[in-house]
Write a structure and sequence with these properties.
heterodimer, A: OB fold (Dihydrolipoamide Acetyltransferase, E2P), Dihydrolipoamide Transferase, Chloramphenicol Acetyltransferase, 3 domains, 6-stranded mixed β-sheet, 4-stranded antiparallel β-sheet, 6 helices, B: alpha/beta, Rossmann fold, 7-stranded mixed β-sheet, 12 strands
Chain lengths: ~350, ~325
């Protein structure tokens, strides 16, 4: 069987991405890797992600330096594989992404799904994995009988990668908020007596209801970059992630069957918690929702993110009166305060 | 005299002499412990020094000996029973388990049974299956009994004096092969007590925590000296009393080494040493383990008569070296 050398490169994770920081390399020269094994971690000002092996093979050479900033397309490591790996032209937008002016994500990798079956690891390795938020399935075992040893998980590169990703995530969110600081905006709050069900049920209902309202009021669903009307409604829902916060984007949730949306919501929350938001859910948001219904926080001022026209937050129900506070922030260039209050009313009555 | 390297027999005899001097209610009873000086020579000249009232030869009836001792203990005496071979405690089991261990509880704490039962335990003397067993686990499974396993002359003297002081029945398991071996530590001439229920950290290392009892303590120590040369260092913990059992030093040590090995002569199946493993894996200490627990114990067979087989049936120094090396090398 003939083998191919395949360079795994710094991926282009958004249209505007030109370079990325190599946070960590998870493999060594000579390592046998399987398709889907994490090879290295990359951070940009927009997103950070694990880059996985596109095929089964052997790591032949490592060119990238941890901590260095590399241009998109620069080879990070060389893989020797028997599989012909598809290459991508990074200058052509991916057909799956319809957003005109925002980002397209093209990488020759597959975002991992939850590992199947149990992983063998010594108890201390499990403790460390839990403390540092390391996915045991991503570790190559060197112990007897394919068991992950203490040494396997004590690799300082691994510990560093998690902290680096957390910091990069924080920096990314803070940077995004900073960019919207100059935008004229107003935040309105009103009470709602809607009842909330489970965490995912509540979020799914909220996401689809707000998407329906945005779809009816197209000027609220503008791209703030090009002022074109959006062809889709994308709701970024703020969720907990092992790297801090994640904002997976639900595209057109109002066009989905309720049950499908609920399943999607549950799955996404699990993925977000594991720090593995599917790549197609990282972009395309036109609005954001911060659902605090299942916390003890009664309200939060929603902050606009770049390219979003509205931001919504829903607080926890008041223990005595049962009502919740819903807050809406709008970009005043596209919507005035009176209109905003009207939309908020629409939302409350729809809920 | 500063140099006092006694054998365990001598150290035990000193302890009993001190107890006989200190307390008029102390007396010793057993088979051939008088004029003969004991099957393994432990009582030695005590008969001549203290007379036949306080060092009493008995007929060959373990049930009678222990029954007499339980009665005496209830009446305010402090008997020390010697059983020639611990295997013969089977004859006296009703008095030990149903009487000595229970009476205090049956009368609402109103009575005590301050009884010490010393018994010669273990294999290695070519005495075959009925005279070579390690039965400490039986007694550790009976609430109301304390079980002591001295590992050296120094330990034996201090632990026996503490056992005699104890108001409850104490089973004192002495390994036969240790009787005639001089210890490495000096044994102080006067009285000293080693409290029951406090484990001893014999030595400290970084790679492996070994819990061993009785004769396995000195075997593990010999193994440790060999392993030192290979750069493998181990912590050795001697529980001294397997009931009550002091686990704290084990937990503390595992935080450093992450690897546990347990060693006993008694058969593996249902053996006491499994309790050490159970305590580790049912506590948060489990989270410190970086290797599966290694277990070295006697084979699940009656001790054979043939010397080669007798040796092969229980852990020897080489077995300990091999197992320790394997655990440390495989689990990093």
């Amino acid at each position: 069987m003939s083998t191919f050398d395949y360079a795994v490169i710094m991926p282009k994770m958004s249209m505007t991405m030109e370079e990325g920081e190599l946070l960590a390399i998870r493999v060594n020269v000579g390592d046998l890797v399987k398709s889907g094994d994490v090879l290295f971690d990359v951070a940009t000002d927009k997103i950070d992600m694990e880059v996985e092996s596109p095929a089964d093979g052997v790591v032949k050479e490592i060119m990238g330096q941890i901590g260095s900033t590399m241009l998109v397309g620069a080879p990070v490591l060389m893989l020797e594989t028997t599989t012909q790996v598809m290459s991508f032209d990074f200058n052509t937008p991916s057909p799956v992404v319809e957003t005109p002016a925002e980002v397209s994500i093209v990488t020759p990798v597959v975002i991992p799904t939850s590992p199947q079956g149990s992983v063998k690891a010594v108890p201390k390795a499990r403790v460390i994995a839990r403390e540092r938020g390391i996915d045991l399935a991503s570790i190559s075992p060197t112990g007897p009988d394919g068991t992950i040893t203490w040494e396997d998980i004590s690799n300082p590169q691994l510990a560093g990668a998690h902290d680096a990703r957390k910091a990069a995530n924080r920096k990314m969110v803070a940077g995004a908020i900073e960019k919207t600081r100059g935008i004229p905006q107003i935040s309105l709050t009103r009470f709602s007596t809607h009842t909330t069900s489970g965490l995912d049920e509540g979020s799914a209902h909220l996401v689809s209801t707000w998407a329906r309202i945005l779809r009816r009021n197209v000027h609220l669903n503008l791209s703030t970059i090009s002022e074109d009307l959006r062809e889709h409604v994308g709701i970024a829902l703020i969720m907990e992630s092992k790297y801090g916060l994640a904002m997976p984007v639900f595209r057109d949730p109002d066009l989905m069957a309720g049950n499908d949306l609920l399943l999607w919501m549950k799955k996404t929350r699990e993925q977000a918690r594991a720090g593995k938001v599917p790549v197609e859910m990282l972009t395309g948001a036109t609005a954001s929702i911060f659902d605090l219904s299942h916390t003890k926080i009664s309200s939060a001022i929603p902050l606009l993110l770049p390219s979003h026209t509205t931001a919504l937050s829903v607080g926890a129900p008041n223990a005595s009166f049962g009502h919740s506070e819903i807050s809406l922030t709008v970009d005043l260039r596209f919507c005035d305060a009176l209109e905003a209050s009207n939309f908020l009313d629409q939302l409350v009555s729809a809920l | 005299m500063s140099d006092r390297k006694l054998t365990m027999s001598e150290a035990l005899r000193e302890a009993m002499a001190i107890a006989l001097d200190e307390r008029p209610e102390v007396f010793i009873l057993g088979e051939d412990i008088g004029i003969y000086g004991g099957a393994f020579g432990v009582t030695g000249d005590l008969y001549h020094r203290y007379g036949s009232e306080r060092v009493r030869d008995t007929p060959i009836s373990e049930l009678g000996i222990v029954g007499t001792a339980v009665g005496a203990a209830l009446s305010g005496m402090r008997p020390i029973v010697e059983i020639q071979f611990s295997d013969f405690t089977a004859q006296a089991m009703d008095q030990i388990v149903n009487q000595a261990a229970k009476i205090h509880f049956m009368v609402g704490g109103g009575l005590h049974v301050p009884l010490v039962l010393r018994a010669a335990s273990g294999s290695g003397t070519g005495a075959a299956g009925q005279h070579s067993q390690s039965l400490e686990g039986w007694f550790a499974n009976v609430p109301g009994l304390k079980v002591v396993m001295p590992s050296s002359p120094y330990e034996a003297k201090g632990l026996l004096l503490a056992a005699i002081d104890d108001p409850n029945p104490v089973i004192f398991m002495e390994h036969k092969l240790l009787y005639k071996v001089a210890g490495t530590e000096d044994v102080p001439e006067g009285a000293y007590r080693i409290p029951l229920g406090v484990s001893r950290v014999v030595r400290e290392g970084k790679d492996l925590t070994v819990v061993a009892t009785g004769i396995m303590v000195s075997r593990t120590l010999a193994a440790a000296h060999e392993l030192d040369k290979e750069g493998i260092t181990l912590t050795l913990i001697d529980p001294r009393t397997i009931s009550p059992l002091d686990m704290d030093p084990v937990y503390e040590s595992l935080e450093k080494t992450g690897r546990l090995m347990v060693v006993q002569e008694a058969p593996e199946h249902g053996g006491f040493i499994n309790e050490v493993i159970a305590k580790v894996v049912t506590s948060t200490s489990l989270g410190h383990l970086i290797a599966p627990v290694a277990r070295l114990a006697g084979m699940n067979v009656p001790i054979p008569y043939a010397p080669q087989l007798e040796k092969a049936a229980v852990p020897q120094v080489d077995d300990i070296i091999k197992k320790a090396r394997e655990v440390v090398a495989s689990w990093r």
